[in-house]
Design a protein that fits this description.
Elements lengths: L1 H5 L8 H16 L8 H5 L3 E4 L11 E8 L10 E7 L4 E8 L11 E2 L5 E2 L2 H10 L17 E6 L6 H8 L4 H4 L3 E6 L3 H8 L7 H15 L22 H9 L10 H4 L5 H10 L3
Parallel strand pairs: 4-7, 7-8
Antiparallel strand pairs: 1-8, 2-3, 3-4, 5-6
Helix pairs in contact: 7-8
Length: 280
């Protein structure tokens, strides 16, 4: 499935299907690696958006994690339940909702006699987890109740408005024990690129390199900064003195150059382009 999607053999206009493929290809592939290799390092980058301060999604005592896909939450279907296994033998479930190109799937809102709002996708998932009513595809349930929800999206920054709207639909008593976390698909790319050279040639190495290529294919890359701006400004058309200074100074040095070097004499057809790029 990963190879087929990587080579555009599963093209579909259905956005939900695209999200399911992304979830399956990425989370599913990570389950074939030790959790400590990629899954846990990625999950540890999750940001708490709402809930008690100082409580991370993945604590220091967590040594393993397993993933169960598309459990049942009544008429709803979260993308996954993450089971975090600690050193003391305890296990805590975390409900996961993944998005790629879509926003949250909300249903008509309703209020029950207890004053609880129903219809919000994240709230419905969290309540099913908290109340212990989540079921696997074969109908079994998890031991213990969870308090944490993880929302994974393609953006590089948290969708704060979406998360806040869902959070505000919880009762105050529910907010006292709930935790909403957010994580970007993009945060996985640097984890995998760092891991790949450490793996011996073979199956795990091929899996990781395929995942890296897949994330790049989906434009799910983290920002890695600028090592050079030479691809932005046409340095080769500048006088030698400017070329030399460019190689010796980090990006951002232009503001300290003398005016005659900031406005070098170029070929006429390049002058306007150069002036538009340089600071004034």
């Amino acid at each position: 499935m990963l190879k087929a999607d990587l080579h555009n053999k599963l093209a579909s206009g259905n956005l939900t299907r695209k999200e399911d493929l992304l979830t399956s290809n990425v989370l599913g592939s990570l389950t074939y690696l030790p959790a400590t290799a990629a899954l846990l390092p990625w999950l540890r980058q999750a940001q708490r958006q709402h809930g008690p301060d100082g409580i991370p999604l993945v604590g220091k005592d967590v040594i393993d994690a397993t993933v169960s896909f598309w459990p049942r939450a009544g008429a709803r279907e979260p993308d996954a339940v993450l089971l975090l296994h600690s050193r003391d033998g305890s296990t805590e479930p975390v409900v996961i909702e993944c998005k790629y190109l879509e926003t949250l799937s909300q249903k008509p809102f309703s209020t029950d006699p207890e004053g609880r709002t129903h219809g919000d996708q994240l709230v419905d998932y969290w309540r099913a987890l908290n109340e212990g009513t989540l079921r696997t595809r074969d109908g079994s349930s998890w031991t213990g109740k969870g308090k944490r929800l993880l929302y994974i999206t393609r953006q590089g920054t948290a969708p704060e408005r979406e998360l806040e709207q869902s959070w505000n639909r919880l009762l105050d008593s529910e907010k006292a024990e709930a935790s909403f976390f957010w994580l970007s698909w993009r945060a996985l790319h640097p984890v995998l690129t760092e891991l790949a050279p450490q793996l011996p040639k073979g199956g795990p190495h091929r899996l990781v390199t395929d995942l890296v290529a897949y994330l790049e294919h989906k434009s799910l890359l983290g920002f890695r900064g600028f090592s050079s701006l030479s691809h932005v400004i046409p340095v080769l058309d500048a006088p030698p003195t400017l070329r030399e200074r460019w190689s010796l100074h980090p990006p951002g040095f232009l503001g300290s150059l003398p005016e005659h070097e900031l406005r070098p004499a170029l070929r006429p057809e390049r002058t306007d382009r150069w002036n538009r790029l340089l600071p004034r």
